[in-house]
Amino acid sequence: MSKSRNFLSILIPSATVFFSSGCIMVLELVAGRLIARHLGSSLYTWTAVIGVVLAGITIGNYLGGRIADRFPARKALAVLFGVSSVACVMIVILNNIVGEWIWLWQLSWPVRVFSHVSLVFLLPSILLGTISPVVAKMALDRGLATGRTVGDIYAWGAAGSIMGTFLTGFYLIAVMGTIAIIWTVGVALLLMAILYWARLWVLYLWAAIFIALMTMGMAPLDWARDTGASLSLREEPNPNILYEDETPYCYVAVKRISETVDKRAFMQDKLMHSKIIMGDINNLQYFHTIIFAAITHGLSENVEKLSVMHIGGGGYVFPRYIEENWPGSRNDVAEIDSRITEAAMQAFGLSRDTPINTITMDARNYVDELLRQERNGGPITRYDFIYEDAFSDYSVPYQLVTKEFNDKIFKILTDDGVYMINSIDAYNSARFLGSYVNTLEQTFPYVYVIAEGGPHSNRKIFVLIASKREMEPEKLTHRYKAGLDFWYLNDSEMETIRQRSRGILMTDDYVPVENMLAPVVQQSAIDLLAGKYREQAKELKRQGKLEQSIAKYEELIKLDPTMSILAFNEIAFIQAKQGNLEAAAGTFRQALEYNERADFKDNMANIHVSLGTVLKQLGRSEQSTEHYKKGIEGYRTELAQNPDSLRTWVRLGDTLATIGNFNEASVCFSKAIALNPAILANHIKFVQSLEFQGRYDEAITALKKAISLASHYGRKESIAQLERYLELVEFRKSKQTTK
């Protein structure tokens, strides 16, 4: 056989296996990105993806060998490519459906991830895995040398895998996005099927169906969006999504979470990275940013300009805070993903002409570059503060937590410099937190840890503060934000987390962050499922399906006992709405009993007040008053810890007014108005409390102020309502004077 004939004989099989192997790798890389929206991106997700795809290829190779022996290769390949095209459409549908299956969330986290990946990607992997053996048999049937032919098929398959990997990772995901890639692969597989068996009419029928489905799944038309969502070809349209993009590193979205006040969330994959109130950058929403601000303010009194670096830009909330409060400062952000920065500019309030300096590279590479400049005799940039905000409980860039990196951070800090890290862990496991403390203490002489609330078992944010000098974080934070529920780990608690770390020091050679955070990921899965249960219960209540809503809240209690207080409260309110006041009172008592048994107190005052209201309706005045007083005591305790809580001042005022203590109630409403004058309802409550005391002149003055404020905000309906109320109060005053 001539060389040219040998080449032509092996060309089609080689091209076929090159193409099919490339498709497998395209889908494998897309799989990791696609499920990240449901499960995040972690060692678990990538392990599941790689394992499931390899399992699919293995099963496919086994089945493919048997198919090759029983059926003509050309027709078999046409059918396999056609069915693989169908499987691509099923990937899109199943990913949307499986992500919402509540029962899967009840599994352990590794099993949950493995199950999701298997249900969505195992079948396509099996189908594509059958192709290589059929192609090899087709090539051998042409009389080619066995060893060389098999070697060529393997080589071209490997080359296709390499091409698919590089093409997807370096180009396709960033340009097209994961869903568009899956539809494109489906089209290509269908074309291959037609090329192998052009006369098979079923393929043309499927082509027509495929085009219709792709239109509903991808077209930017309203009817296509609605129909596609109903068929699970795309996610339900969310009007609160203001911006979304698929970058080389993650899926990013900006979501409006409140319209009354324009509050937005910055999402990366499934995780909320930042929150902001548009136009109010000083109103920090996340605990760790409040700590960052408190320590920075406390150590920078009378300092006009700072030199700071942020590791991770996210929504650029804290870099903008620095820009606002220390204008003219050196304000560097090491953000590896340029499209994260673009998202912040598009929909999160970051100005395009911001003086914030963004370095688009991995933070460790940037730090290495700074130290390289110093070694070469150049000037070294030194920072007063470095803020680490690139971690989540699902993904921790391991190169940023090692002793070697800490040593480099130490070198680029000023003599009084401070390194602050936002971290997530659970105190009852604390393996990562303890290891991080151990590691930081190898470099920094002083390490402190602050968390929100007390040592509950739930996962929470811990802020680690590593400093070259001794400080008093408690005093610094109290001076900046008095009243917040901060937990400062004392020496004994620091020793506890060190012991829980099992003495691990994280180095470039040994940094098992994913294994150490496994308990936190498990708790995160429970939290996500609890959130789904809560949403379902609220929706059932909204639909009037009260018994089903109660059942869902009871499931929530079994799933996550820490949600018991909320669930008991909601059940009791539903029972009261049904007119079953005795049952409601019993449920509120259950909530109080659970609270007493729990290792933390939560919402106690509200529960007492709610129970008092139900008992009042039942005619049990003495018991009702007793619970109202306990509620008042609880609110006062809360205000001692956080005197700037608007909600607590209003609740205290309402409860005092309920028991007839209008004098103290008016003081509470006055405090609430001082904290936020824009809420007109509190002005009315203030006036009513003055009225009940016969203080008509003060009530009239307060109403006139409220009218002026409503006029300032352009609230015409409120102005008319307040003016009518003013006339009524003036009339009542005149009657009082006449008497």
Number of structurally distinct domains: 4
CATH-wise, what's the superfamily of the largest domain?
Answer: Vaccinia Virus protein VP39
Largest sheet, if any? 8 strands, mixed
- The number of helices is 29
Which strand-content bin applies to the residues?
5-15%
CATH first level of the largest domain: Alpha Beta
| N-C termini distance | 124 Å
Structural class, by secondary structure, is: alpha/beta
Q: Enumerate the spans where pLDDT stays under 50 for 5 or more consecutive residues.
A: none
- What is the CATH architecture assignment of the largest domain? 3-Layer(aba) Sandwich
Indicate the mean pLDDT. 87
CATH-assigned fold name of the largest domain: Rossmann fold
Give your account of this protein's structure.
- The protein has 739 residues and is an alpha/beta fold.
- The chain folds into four domains: 3-230, Up-down Bundle (Growth Hormone, Chain: A); 282-516, Rossmann fold (3-Layer(aba) Sandwich); 519-644, Tetratricopeptide repeat domain (Serine Threonine Protein Phosphatase 5, Tetratricopeptide repeat, Alpha Horseshoe), CATH 1.25.40.10; 647-739, Tetratricopeptide repeat domain (Serine Threonine Protein Phosphatase 5, Tetratricopeptide repeat, Alpha Horseshoe).
- Helices cover 64% and strands 11% of the residues.
- It is built from 29 helices and twelve strands.
- The strands form two sheets. Strands 7-6-5-8-9-11-10-12 form an eight-stranded mixed sheet, with helices on both faces. Strands 1-2-3-4 form a four-stranded antiparallel sheet, sandwiched between helices.
- Strand 8, helix 14 and strand 9 (413-426) form a beta-alpha-beta unit.
- Helix 1 (3-39) runs antiparallel to helix 5 (131-140) and helix 1 (3-39) runs parallel beside helix 6 (146-176).
- The longest helix is centred in the first third of the chain and has 37 residues, at 3-39.
- 44% of the residues are buried.
- The mean pLDDT is 87.
